[in-house]
Amino acid sequence: MAGEIPDLQAQERTGTGKGAARQARRAGMVPGIVFGGDVDPLPINIPFNVLLKRLKKGRFKSTLFNLQVEGQDDVRVICRDVQRDVVKDLPTHVDFMRLRRTTKINLFIPVEFINLEDCPAIRKGGVMTVVRNEVEMVVTAGDIPDHLTVDMGKVENIGDTVTISDVELPEGSKLVISDRDFVICNVSAPSALKSSGDDEEEAEVEATEAAEGEEA
Q: Measuring CA to CA, which of 22, 61, 67, 198 is 20 to 30 A from 90?
């Protein structure tokens, strides 16, 4: 199921060009542009602190936003580019693309692991290693899933691997990588146990070699 689409407030920017952009930055705003959807591009300003907070949360470019600009109809948008200061690595300009509810887009959908405490393989002493914590998918803009769910309660044995074919995909979505059954996570033996096993193997080899030497 799709989660609630977060709101993103902005102001319409009067004037374009470098002068207007510099003025916006001096006022604590980040200039941007909204394009696409058979409508003229809309210059906007976003409060610097609001944008920086969103960027720090992660997955900014894979999040669908409900853009609210005073005097304009709300519109669903997705970020297509964030320009940054080459020295400070802070946002200086942002580009958004308008989307219809039926638009198909590529997004990275996070993976959620459940029932870790009931995972038989982990209860036997196994250690889970996450290979992918998000998966790129083609989804509909109006029905973006919150996450993909991996039920670790079904992973029985140490050495077992969970691949994408073991994960139920949301209705109406599909994988970008569809030609191989890639790994999501695995449960392996603890490193200490592996080392112990290696030591035992080495001891067996040494004992065999010593016995062969005595026979010779």
A: 67
Instruction: Tell me the C-alpha distance between 135 and 145, whole Å.
Output: 12
In whole angstroms, what is the distance from residue 165 CA to residue 183 CA? 9
Q: Is the pTM above the cut of 0.90?
A: no
Percentage of the chain beyond pLDDT 90 is 58
Can you tell me which residue has the tokens 């062969």?
A: 212
